[in-house]
Design brief:
The protein is α/β, with parallel strands linked by helices. It has 7 helices and 7 strands.
Length: 238
């Protein structure tokens, strides 16, 4: 199911639920933003607004490398809002404690099961850090059985969605576990729903790695944002 086709079914489900009382406005939201928008999720706990320059940098790379039309704005959407269903791709980050409200948790579960793609990046870059423990705890409440959060293999389609990453997720200069299990995390995790990624989860701190002004990219010998392009392309085509 292509991501941009998920909204119709999502609206049908949302219209029947009190949680999505504002669902009637979603058609106009999508009509007003037909190009790709790098939406960021706002949630009540923790710090959701990390790495402020990262989205514009990824948008610049999408323009540079692909034919995807992009919105220059960077919308912020509340995790418990019906407006969440207007975006096929949403980014969530932080490095503090995560405690979703019942409303946030229910809305997120409905979003993912309706076809939405949530990219989550741990800015604490530590599998034993407070963000990792509490966010993964939230995922265990939402997704059970075959949908539970689990490692994805290095030959997953996301690693060849646009650029080739034969060794799996590229490392970052920020990741350092400190607890002796994985100094460099050679894997990402995902919640898989109906054969597609619904939640992509990283402990590698890509947000900080890509958090620089896009005009500075010309000084790099290797463009480290290319994997960000893969994530977006995969999100919109699978």
């Amino acid at each position: 199911m292509e991501r941009r086709s998920f909204l119709k079914s999502a609206l049908t489900a949302a219209a029947a639920a009190p949680l999505a009382s504002a669902a009637g406005s979603l058609g106009s939201v999508l009509a007003a933003t037909p190009a790709f928008a790098f939406a960021r999720a706002r949630y009540g706990s923790g710090n959701w607004d990390t790495d402020g320059k990262m989205p514009s940098n990824i948008l610049n790379s999408l323009v540079e490398y692909t034919s995807i039309r992009v919105e220059t704005s960077e919308p912020v959407v509340a995790l418990d809002s019906a407006e969440l269903f207007g975006f096929p791709f949403v980014y969530l980050s932080g490095n503090e404690l995560v405690r979703f409200t019942d409303r946030e948790r229910e809305n997120l579960g409905r979003y993912v099961h309706s076809g939405g793609f949530l990219f989550v990046d741990d800015c604490n870059h530590d599998v034993d850090g407070v963000f990792a423990k509490t966010f993964e705890g939230e995922m265990s409440k939402l997704f059970k059985g075959s949908e539970r959060l689990s490692k994805i293999p290095k030959d997953h389609a996301i690693y060849r969605a646009f650029f080739e990453f034969p060794d799996g997720p590229p490392p970052t200069s920020h990741e350092l576990n400190g607890w002796g299990d994985d100094l460099i995390h050679d894997y990402l995790k995902a919640v898989n729903v109906d054969g597609r990624i619904g939640v992509l989860y990283s402990n590698k701190d890509y947000g900080c790695e890509w958090n620089y002004d896009f005009t500075s990219k010309r000084f790099q010998s290797v463009d480290n944002t290319k994997f960000g392009v893969n994530i977006v392309v995969h999100a919109l085509t699978h």
